[in-house]
Structure to design on (137 residues):
């Protein structure tokens, strides 16, 4: 029997982010001072240090910046998923996120391939952002 997949920690700083994910929305932060867009949520802008940050809903469109195919599960929780793809995805809005590419043809993936946002339900409180290969985009 496989163990459940791990859940990310939820704290005061990340609570709104995970609530948005639970509503099937991926939110980024945008700095009012310099316009920088960032993912993951932080107290300060990573570019200018400003504290005036607002949420921005991501479109869900992205491209693969880099990827690897995992052929040996890191724990029993992921045994049923092997082989699976872990990728760096550059979002249309600019930031790069790390996520799985679900149901991807392993021999058809390439750097620059388009992907679309989906969510994996891990618990009643947690939807984890993932992506699917989207060649039709």
């Amino acid at each position: 029997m496989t163990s459940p997949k791990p859940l990310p920690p939820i704290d005061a700083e990340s609570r709104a982010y995970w609530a948005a994910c639970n509503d099937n929305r991926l939110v980024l932060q945008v700095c009012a001072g310099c316009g920088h867009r960032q993912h993951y949520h932080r107290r300060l802008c990573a570019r200018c240090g400003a504290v005036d940050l607002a949420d921005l809903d991501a479109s869900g469109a992205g491209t693969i910046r880099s990827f690897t195919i995992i052929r040996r599960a890191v724990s029993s929780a992921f045994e049923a998923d092997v082989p699976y793809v872990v990728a760096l995805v550059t979002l249309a809005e600019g930031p790069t996120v790390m996520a799985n590419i679900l149901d991807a043809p392993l021999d058809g993936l390439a750097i620059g391939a388009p992907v679309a946002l989906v969510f994996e339900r891990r618990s009643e409180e947690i939807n984890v952002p993932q992506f699917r290969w989207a060649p039709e985009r």
Notes: The chain has a mean pLDDT of 94. The first helix runs from residue 15 to 22.
